[in-house]
Amino acid sequence: MKAERDLGFGPRSRTSSARASREAEAAPRRGEREATLVRRRRVQKVRRIAVPAVIGVIACAALIGWQSGAIADMVGRVSKQINTQAIKTGLVIDEVAVSGLQRLSRADILEAVAVPPGTPIFAVDIDEIRTRVAMIGWVKSVVVARELPNHLRVQITERKPIAIWQQQGLLALIDDEGAVITTAGLAEFADLPQVVGVGAERAAARLAPILRAEPDLYRHMQAAVRVADRRWDVVFKNGVRVRLPDGGEALAWRRLAQLQSQHRILEREIQIVDLRQPDRLILRLTAEEVHRRKLEAAAGVKGGRV
To answer: β-pairing, 170-175 with 180-182?
Structure first.
């Protein structure tokens, strides 16, 4: 046994030989893996340098091409081919569906849409149509959409008039946002309150329902005048002016309705009714009534109805 171990034929010698054999076989594989890692690192390094450079070259080429008109021409040719194919496959506008109309007519909208039948559906500029339709005074908002294969849908939301605004001698119908709807055909809206002055168009939305809450006063109104863009004076058809407070307009308006119901205050010889102070009523007589009372006082006659 000793001789066998000494000669290298024992068990320990065989184990060492097997290990050596495995290591010899593994050595080439380790070499291959290391070589692969080295190549990958080189590729990654090249990519980090080359990719931005390539992108830069492409961007420069695109810019030069765009400035020279080459890309624009290419886009134009592609668009033309798409429209040609759309016509061949029946993807053309044959109906414009309009909804949400109240005062506007379908003809008003179609004139603004300006898309004739047979137009390739993909050639329609949705944003441009939306802009044109939105320019109509009665239009508050608009939604325009394609509906394949051959419909164009236009959904309208119209403005709701609340008052007639007078500014610098001009009259205009306005909505609750103060937007001018139209300056034509205002006789149709004679039942709406007339508001006057700078800022009146913006503040009218809050005032209008307050005024309408007292029908007996509302039907005798001529105009509501904005004062310093802070408060309102209400002028009646007989010339009486009522000064409302800055805040608390509804309460003051109800108070005036009670005074009218109980004392017919608007039918007396009064020029101004001042309701700006909730605990006080201030009246100013007309010039004629002041003159009459002076004459009566001079003659020693009691008179006057106020």
So the answer is: antiparallel
pLDDT digits (tens, 9 = 90+) for 144-193: 999 988 899 999 999 999 999 999 889 999 999 999 999 999 999 999 99
Q: Are residues 48 and 109 in the same domain?
A: no
Left (φ > 0), alpha (ψ -120 to 50) or beta: where does 165 sit? beta
| Amino acid in the structure at residue 158 | E
Q: Return the structure tokens found at 16.
A: 């060492």
Task: Give the global pTM.
Answer: 0.65
C-alpha span between 109 and 298 (Å, rounded): 71
Q: β-strands 139-147, 151-158: how paired?
A: antiparallel
How confident is the model over 231-275, as pLDDT tens digits? 999 999 999 999 999 999 999 999 999 999 999 999 999 999 999
Total structural domains within the chain: 3
Of 134, 158, 182, the last residue of a domain is 158
Q: Which residues pair with 170 in a beta bridge?
A: 167
Residues 53 and 130 placed together within one structural domain of the fold = no
Give me the domain span that covers residue 132.
90-158
Peptide bond connecting 52 to the previous residue in cis, omega within 30 degrees of 0:
no
Q: How many residues does the chain have?
A: 306
174 and 275 housed in the same domain = yes
Q: Among residues 203, 176, 177, 173, which one has the least CA distance to residue 189?
A: 173
